[in-house]
What we know:
22% helix; alpha+beta; Thiol Ester Dehydrase, Chain A; homotetramer; 2 helices
Amino acid sequence: MTKPILMDARALNDFVTRDFGQVAADFTVDAVTDQGIRLRLIVADRHLRPGGTVSGPTMFALADVAVYLAILSRIGPVALAVTTGCSIDFMRKPEAGRDLYCDVRLLKLGRVLAVADALIFSDGVEDPVARANMTYSIPPAPGR
Amino acid sequence: MTKPILMDARALNDFVTRDFGQVAADFTVDAVTDQGIRLRLIVADRHLRPGGTVSGPTMFALADVAVYLAILSRIGPVALAVTTGCSIDFMRKPEAGRDLYCDVRLLKLGRVLAVADALIFSDGVEDPVARANMTYSIPPAPGR
Amino acid sequence: MTKPILMDARALNDFVTRDFGQVAADFTVDAVTDQGIRLRLIVADRHLRPGGTVSGPTMFALADVAVYLAILSRIGPVALAVTTGCSIDFMRKPEAGRDLYCDVRLLKLGRVLAVADALIFSDGVEDPVARANMTYSIPPAPGR
Amino acid sequence: MTKPILMDARALNDFVTRDFGQVAADFTVDAVTDQGIRLRLIVADRHLRPGGTVSGPTMFALADVAVYLAILSRIGPVALAVTTGCSIDFMRKPEAGRDLYCDVRLLKLGRVLAVADALIFSDGVEDPVARANMTYSIPPAPGR
Lengths: 144, 144, 144, 144
């Protein structure tokens, strides 16, 4: 699925800084890719479970934000997309002491519905720690 | 699925207070039920999105903790169950200014795998705001 | 979620006989319930895997048809609802030589989107063999 | 995830012909790939819904068989893997009159659990018609 890129990594990061309030410090867009984006989670103590691995809800949030920003990268900051569903598999324990990153592939970007999948990796490790697919509802915007 | 109850609401709440650290204040077990448990999220500012509704990752965490505690209510605090998968649908916006609660039904509690579903409600509102199903892996415990 | 019932079991069975062609003989609506419907799969050789248990795709089809008919029971035979997503867990092996039935709960029946969950049982056995949740898109109908 | 290939396309097709009985004629392995396999559904009338598009349960079966064979391509025909879960999104209507093919990526191939995702395409069309992820349980085999 190839759609023109309307927001690059810098534009997305500015958007996150401006609009994401307290969680803006958690995330940084590494790249806008042919198929979606790569989003990094800057791991901090508040993301960890006992044992030093990133918690499940934090990985869910990483995938959720990553898909949201991937959609905005193609439709611009105009719309208020809403998560309608997510299916996630936790496959391996994240490595302690490493950032996570999330690679998103946009699979469908329709007028009212978007579908994407995401793989989450511990930085520097080959096998993914989690996979997710997410569906978003895209409310009609004035003039679209 | 009916299994004897090994931990009641008080025992589960004590466990949460002791072992859940910083997030213990978020949750309270309202009841252990025939089919599972009811877990309450005591909504605070840190759970909210702009507009005053509870965020998706917070609802994911609520379902995740609720299923985890439902499993412990039947197998006791001995095992370290690990979430392996979750599928969640967000159906309605939670009402601002209300707690959420989550009703868990245990559907399978096998030797190595547990499956449950969960409905999340805004307290006092009839229709559910989200539904989830979760699978947990139960590592072998000494002597089980 | 309580919506008035527009089609009862007889009306749904007539609809299946008329519109479902070759698979009409597989299914019968046992009841329209407060929350949805109960649909029965009349198990035949073509549904079985080696060993005599019902195949996964057959259980998927049972849940899919059951949710579709549950939606029609509340909105009538006017619309052409389309499955957009399904998440299914296979929990136990179905018993050989028994019908399966599927209990549907409608969780959301919006203007454009429906969400339901379903439990599949071997007739006469307490624990469910599978659970599924399904989302349907409901195209706009003239006059609705 | 790179694992040595134990069964190539010819070995898998021989296995399907020998062990899949009545549905063997539906499927052919086009290729064993670096990440998994590509499986083709040879579309026939029995797979179609009114309107000439492939039915949902048929696409579920395609993804299910494709992941199963991808697992066997890496572990050999020794084990009896069992589907434990599937999450599938139907994104576009398949084109009438075209075969479907399914590209599988193995994401985890553990001792007892396998996870894979799959994209389904109408042959000759760029955008996928469906995506699925599946989990399989791999029973212990003698000598493994």
